[in-house]
Automatic annotation (TrEMBL):
Name this polypeptide is given: prolycopene isomerase
Any one of the GO BP annotations: carotenoid biosynthetic process
Pfam families assigned to the protein according to its UniProt record, in alphabetical order: Amino_oxidase
Reaction catalysed by this enzyme: 7,7',9,9'-tetra-cis-lycopene = all-trans-lycopene
Amino acid sequence: MAGTGTALKLGLNSQLSPFSLFPNQHCSSPVTTTSSSLSLKVFTNKRLQNHKPKAVLSTERKTEGREDGRDGEKYDAIVIGSGIGGLVAATQLAAKGARVLVLEKYVIPGGSSGYYTRDGFKFDVGSSVMFGFSDKGNLNLITQALAAVGHKMEVIPDPSTVHFHLPKQLSVRVHREYDDFISELISKFPHEKQGILQFYGDCWKIFNSLNAMELKSLEEPLYLFGQFFKKPLECLTLAYYLPQNAGAIARKYIKDPELLSFIDAECFIVSTVNALQTPMINAGMVLCDRHFGGINYPVGGVGGIAEALANGLVNMGSEIQYKANVTSIILENRKAVGVRLSNGKEFFARKVISNATRWDTFGKLLKEEELPEEEKNFQKCYVKAPSFLSVHMGVKASVLPPDTDCHHFILEDSWDNLENPYGSIFLSIPTVLDPSLAPEGHHIFHIFTTSGIEDWEGLGRKEYEQKKETVANEIIQRLENKLFPGLQSSIVLKEVGTPKTHRRFLARDNGTYGPMPRGTPKGLLAMPFNTTAIDGLYCVGDSCFPGQGVIAVAFSGVMCAHRVAADIGLEKNSPVLDAALLRLLGWLRSLA
Ligand SMILES: NC(=O)c1ccc[n+]([C@@H]2O[C@H](COP(=O)([O-])OP(=O)(O)OC[C@H]3O[C@@H](n4cnc5c(N)ncnc54)[C@H](O)[C@@H]3O)[C@@H](O)[C@H]2O)c1
Ligand SMILES: CC(C)=CCC/C(C)=C/C=C/C(C)=C/C=C/C(C)=C/C=C/C=C(C)/C=C/C=C(C)/C=C/C=C(\C)CCC=C(C)C
């Protein structure tokens, strides 16, 4: 690593372009790693060995034309975007025997679950808290997604999910062991012991029901009815909780307003809204998986997950192309048949799956089309959540008190600020678990807080840079005051990303963090699944059921792959039951 002074200078000056969260191709960046990421791995899985690898690095490497995707049905599916949602859909389909083409706008896979490197530090772009990464149960969807392409990642168990630092000096550590967490919470609210046990007890009812089921597409009737037949109690439990929210259930058992605010903070992490707006199924899933399978960090960083999935996809004979910016979805007779890139190239397939958000899919990739009723309903119930400001820093290790946890949530003075822009701060220090991510004697601080794009628009370049510096420094100062004395002076590298950064590099409308209910939702009832009103077009990712979160989008990918596989004849299907179920689901959504 360069000397400390040099690194700081680089961090603050030469690399802080308006969109400096991500690398350009001249610096130490994922670009270098991409080519090696496409190198072949030796798999023991027999079926993978039979596939001929076909790595395609960029659109320049191939000449494509209309006939390429169409005649002979070369591609069964095209996936727009390689976020975890898109990659899981693609790899699951490939594992079922489909031929898939993934088109990614950026230079590496992963979207919000990507990474970048600077001066010996390896930063996760977004997600650092990994659910679904254990080796037991049915809900370890990340482990399963990797296994489907013959890959297993080494993980480091996190002894706690998050350390909450809340108003009135309330400090709660969410221990990996459920009993330790519950005892700590009860010790802070002894008068609410019963309420605490009942609320988290309901969460376990949901988790255990989910964990007992085989997870596939809820839009596929043969599977859904089969599950009702095999696991009636579990399905009825889930159906009961499907339209409910965590806040309403918490209020049945708990009266203490401070404890209810704590439950709000628990839910805010999951959904960026309070408990009254958080679907109970999602709360149950997350608040229990962290104790059942635990939170596990992949050795080498989160970016390795997407790289392994992309490698696996290629090893199974499917393709991924980078720097492939899809600008429109091609329709024929109101059926999606292919996509067009910004360079004019066209690709065709039997099905098109969009991992862009529903706002981007219907607002940009299909902008000529009138918005279908279903999407109008979705937009009536859900708005784009604000984006976020992120600060990635390299700091001297001496600034960390002994036994510092990996993940922190900080809300200092008033519960009223929980959902306000810049109100609460998320901090991950992944080097606590995996020191290899930073040069010796250093740690990574990955800080983020909610922020709307409107705060960052209409500024001149200099003003924009100054504002980034000012806002980031305020956040850092708050962390220094609350937890890390001397933080400012321990920084050796700093990169600030704004909502504009996230809009540009993740191609998400307004840089949104994901969908957020407009009012009080009926649980998950209004959340659309993967099919759309356009024949042949499917959506996947966080604007689909069950919403935001890496494990949530992985589930969305599993569901999408199953529905598409049934539609192209790789899984059993029943067109008559399909039509009936899709109508029933549409009607249920209209009740929300
Ligand atoms: N745990 C955390 O700290 C954390 C932080 C940030 C994000 N996340 C999670 O990650 C989830 C997002 O996953 P996702 O799979 O829905 O999507 P994503 O936004 O991660 O990925 C979408 C991908 O599609 C690509 N793309 C979009 N439009 C395109 C186009 N027109 N042409 C080609 N490529 C295009 C983007 O470049 C990106 O790589 C969010 O729900 C969020 O919860 C978690
Ligand atoms: C169909 C009908 C009508 C009915 C029937 C009934 C049934 C059967 C049902 C069923 C259902 C199901 C299966 C469901 C499922 C679900 C699921 C799986 C879910 C999941 C979810 C998940 C989630 C939500 C997740 C999330 C996560 C997140 C968001 C995370 C985040 C994190 C962060 C932000 C980090 C933080 C940081 C710090 C603190 C630093």
